[in-house]
Structures are given as structure tokens and as C-alpha cells.
Amino acid sequence: MNKLIRLLPLIVCLALGGVLYQGLFLNPQELPSALVGKKLPDFELSTLKNAGETVNAGDLKGKVKLLNVWATWCPSCRYEHPYLLEIAKSDRVAVFGLNYKDERGPANQWLQQLGDPYVFSIFDQQGTLGLDLGVYGAPETFVIDGEGVIRKRFAGVIDARVWQSEFLPLIEQIEAEQQGS
């Protein structure tokens, strides 16, 4: 028993080291989401451009769509914005915005100055939809299929490399599934 007590700190240290070592190989942009494989949560919020116009999950129409979480206070959102404009021009997917914990005036100015890639932006000033989606911060992007099911959650900036490796293969898979049914 005395030997076991002496070895206990070593055993605990090795176990902790093993757990921490395993963490070195995890991808921080692949955040687990309990919503992947489930429908987009119901919501009723106003659009960014018009406080009197409300939208809900049913208004996000289209075959495959992206829901991009963004804000004016987010420097990474500014960096990814030009690439979102390119994605929107391609008509491959519909791009919707979720303006997260932001102010309406500056957010509308942002879109006027930098261009608006979104079919529309949902104004989530209190972060209620973001909370339902499990958003940690901006930018985050969700891939939603034609049935309204969340297929992917990606935390971080979308650029050409990320689009080619993370998004395009999944979008092609969803399109093939929809053509097969």
C-alpha cells in the first residue's frame, strides 16, 4: 500500500500528460455541435435591414445554404468578408447572415461599404439564436441542407483553402444525395 501511495503522483502525472498530449492533435476549428444532424432551431427575429420585418427558420430557403455568424466588432469577419462575396456570386449556395450581438446602424453601414453577400441577415442583438446554435463567437458558419438540417459547423475564417477542403466536398455530397432522392 505504501508503494502505491508513492507511485500515485507519477500515475496522475502520466495520465494528465497523456490527455494533454492527445489535445495537441485536435482541430480547434472542429467544434463539437449537438445540432449537427438536427433541424435549425426555430426562431423569430427581425432582419438587419428592416426592424419591422421578422424572419424564421422557414425563411432560409434554398438547396444548400450557409448561415454565417458575423459582427462588426469581429476583425476576422472583415478578413473573410471578400471571400463570402465570391461565394455568393457563384450561386452554388445561398448565403444567409446572422449578425451576432451587434448594433443595427454600424452593421448596415458595414454591408453598404463592403458589399452584402447575404440573401438577408438576421439581427440577433441579444444573441438568442446564437445561444441556441451554440455559437462561441464570430465568425462561425453552418452548412444547412435543403431540408433545414444542420450538416456542419465551422468556427473560423472561410478562405479559398478552407472552402476547398472543408465545405465543397460536403456541399457536393449533399447535392448528390438530393439528386439521388
List keywords for this structure.
alpha/beta; five-stranded mixed beta sheet; two-stranded antiparallel ribbon; 5 helices; 42% helix
Describe this structure in words.
The protein has helices at about 1-25, 75-90, 105-115, 130-135, 160-180, and strands spanning about 45, 55, 65-70, 95-100, 120-125, 140-145, 150-155. With about 180 residues, the chain is of the alpha/beta class. The chain is globular, with a radius of gyration of 20 Å.
Largest sheet: 5 strands, mixed
Strand order of the largest sheet: 5-4-3-6-7
Radius of gyration: 20 Å
Q: Based on CA inertia axes, which overall geometry fits?
A: globular
The gist of it:
The protein is an alpha/beta fold. The chain has helices spanning 2-23, 75-90, 104-114, 128-133, 160-180; strands spanning 44-46, 54-56, 65-70, 94-100, 121-124, 140-144, 150-155. It has a five-stranded mixed sheet. Strands 1-2 form a two-stranded antiparallel ribbon.
Lay out the secondary structure.
Blueprint lengths: L1 H22 L20 E3 L7 E3 L8 E6 L4 H16 L3 E7 L3 H11 L6 E4 L3 H6 L6 E5 L5 E6 L4 H21 L1
Parallel strand pairs: 3-4, 4-5
Antiparallel strand pairs: 1-2, 3-6, 6-7
